[in-house]
Amino acid sequence: MIGVLIVHPHPSERAVIGAALSNHSQIEVVGLAGDARQALALTRRLSPTVTLLDNRATRDLHQVNELADRSSLIMMTRRTEHRALVALLLRTPVRGLLVHGHFEPSDLASAVTAVASGLGWLSPVAAAVAASALRDAKDDRASCGPADDATAPDSGDGHASGDSPSRMPRAARNP
Q: How far is CA 6 from CA 17, 18, 53, 104, 149, in A?
């Protein structure tokens, strides 16, 4: 059984997501939280396999990382125009990214089961934004000459210097 914690600031949307997952025989919603602080307390107590976190439930990347340390994390967002946010989330331990309004209940269950088994998951819109961000990054590196991310010194945390995920860029903090 896959235990899921749903973290969303709006109770009605938590209920809709919970109802969508309740139809899946391998998934059990083990908890509901309105924000990341509540979610952290629940993950300590309930040990969910997967946490579904709406990006409006936190603006603190440290909370995102701590939740990801305790449970496989799928982020849900409505905001795809901020490529910096999507790129940042893909550099964190977030295992999946879903865009509200662009996935079906069956996609939600598929994302949960895939992430629970160790795979990643991007909804189609999130995949398109991620691909665009990767293309833009590749174009930026190509125009910079030989010094690119591959040759940037490692800061010791697995990220090139200046690419630390510990701080959210302004666009990511203000979705």
A: 8, 7, 6, 17, 35
